Amino acid sequence: MPSVLIKTYGCQMNERDSEQVASMFLAGGYTLTTDEAEADVILINTCAVREKAELKALGKMGLLCARPDAKPWVVYGFMGCMVQSRAQSLFRDINRLDVVTGTRQYHNVYAICNRLLKSRLGMGLTEPLKRGAHICEVGEVEGFQNEIRDHLPPSGGCTAFVSIMQGCEMRCSYCIVPSTRGAECSRPAADIIKEVRELVDHGGVKEVTLLGQIVNRYGREEPVVNGRGAFVRLLESLHDIDGLERLRFTSPHPIGFREDLVNAYTYLPKLCSHIHFPMQSGSDRILQLMRRPYKNEKYLRLCDAMREARPDLAITTDIIVGFPGETDEDYQQTKAAVERVQFDNAFVFQYSPRRDTVAAAMPDQICLRVKEERNHDLLETVNRIATARNMALVGTEQSILVEGPSKSNPDRQQGRSSQNKPVIIQKGKAEVGKIVPVRITECTGFTLYGEVGN
Ligand code: SF4
C-alpha cells in the first residue's frame, strides 16, 4: 500500500484543504505517514501571506528532494497559495519537483500524483531522478467549491473546521490572498449542512468552526430573507443540528457585517461567545492606505453592538504596526482603539512588504527599530488588558468543552471555554468531548485553571 506525507504551512484554511487531499488519498488506498523515508508521495501545502512562510516551504522541499537515500520514484509536490503566485517558476527553484497545484486544484491533487506514481512504479526505477515531471495546474475550475466535500474523520477530536467559502474580493493593499485564493466562492449550504451533520453523527464532533477568508460575505449574491442574509441563515440551519453543541466562525470583515449577524448573538446560544475580528489599525488614515474601506468608528460601533447582544463576548483581533507612512500619531490612535475595545487578545504583526502588493511599493516605509518599538509597546498594552479580563473570570463558572490531555502537563486535561480561552482542569474528572461546568480558580495571562463542578 503506497503512503503519502502531507506537511501544511499557514492558516486553518490550509489545514482544512490538506485534510481534504488526505481523505482522497485514503479513499484511493494510500496510508498517511509522517515518516519522510517511508513516503511515496510528499506534498507541502504552502502559504504566501509572508515571505518567511514561502522561504520555509522552499527550504524544506529542497532538502527533501536532495536526500541521497530517497526512493527514486517519490512524487514531490507543492500545493496552495505560494503555487498560485509562483507557479512554473518553482521548477526553476527545485528541478526535482514533480507537481505544483494552485488553490483551486485541491480536488485534483490525488489523481495527478497517483497517476505519476503508478507510471514510475511501473518503470522499475533504481537511480534517483534528476528532473521532476514539472506538472503545473493553477487554473480556475468551474464549480471547484462544490468539490470540497470529503472530510477526514477527526482523529478522535471533538472539534472540526469546515470550509464554507474561498477567496476574497477585498483589495487590502498589503495582502496577497485575493491573487492567490481568487474571487469569493461560496459552497452550497446543503453541502455544508450535510458535512456538519456527518461530522456530528459519525465523527463525534461537538464543535465546528466555519472557515473562509471573509466569512460574513458568504452567499452575498443570494437575497436577504426576512432581514437575514445567507450567512446568518446558514448559522441558523447548523444551529438546528442535534448533537452539535458549539458553533464558531473565522474570519469576518467589517464590510458586509450587518445587523442580522449582530442579532444572531441574541438568539443562537450555540454560537460561541468569541469573535476573531481583525482591526488592523485604529487610524482612519492608515485604514485608507491599507485600502480597508471603512472608518475605525464603524469597527468600534460593531464591537459595542456585539457586546450589547452578547455581554460576555470575547473579542480578539489582528493588528499591523509599522505600516508604510504610519506616524506616531497614527500608532497612538491604534493603541487608543485597543484600550477602547479591551480585546481579550491581539495578534500584533510588524508590517512586512509582500511581493506584488501595492503597499510594498509605497513611500515612507518604516524602519525595523520603530516597528519593533511599536510592536513591543502595543503587546504590553494587549497583555495587560488580556490578563485583567482573565483575572475577572476567577471565581466564575464557565462551560468547558474538554478536548484532551493538556499540552503542557499530561497529568492534566485541557478544554476551551465558549470565549475560546484554554482552560486546564484536573485529569480524569471529565470525558473528552463533554461540555462540563468548571469553576475558575486561577489564571495566567492567557490560560485559565479550574475545577470541574458537579
Ligand atoms: S480582507 Fe483583506 S486582508 Fe483579508 S484576505 Fe481579503 S484582502 Fe486579505
What's the structural blueprint in terms of helices and strands?
Layout: E1 3-8, H1 12-27, E2 31-32, E3 41-46, H2 51-65, E4 75-80, H3 81-86, H4 89-93, E5 99-101, H5 109-123, E6 135-137, E7 159-163, E8 165-166, H6 177-181, E9 185-186, H7 189-203, E10 207-211, H8 230-239, E11 246-250, H9 259-267, E12 274-276, H10 284-289, H11 296-309, E13 314-321, H12 328-341, E14 345-350, H13 368-391, E15 397-405, E16 412-417, E17 422-426, E18 435-443, E19 448-452
Parallel strand pairs: 1-2, 1-3, 3-4, 4-5, 5-6, 7-10, 10-11, 12-13, 13-14, 17-19
Antiparallel strand pairs: 8-9, 15-16, 15-18, 16-17, 18-19
Helix pairs in contact: 9-11, 12-13
The protein binds iron/sulfur cluster.
The site of iron/sulfur cluster (SF4) has 9 residues, from helix 6.
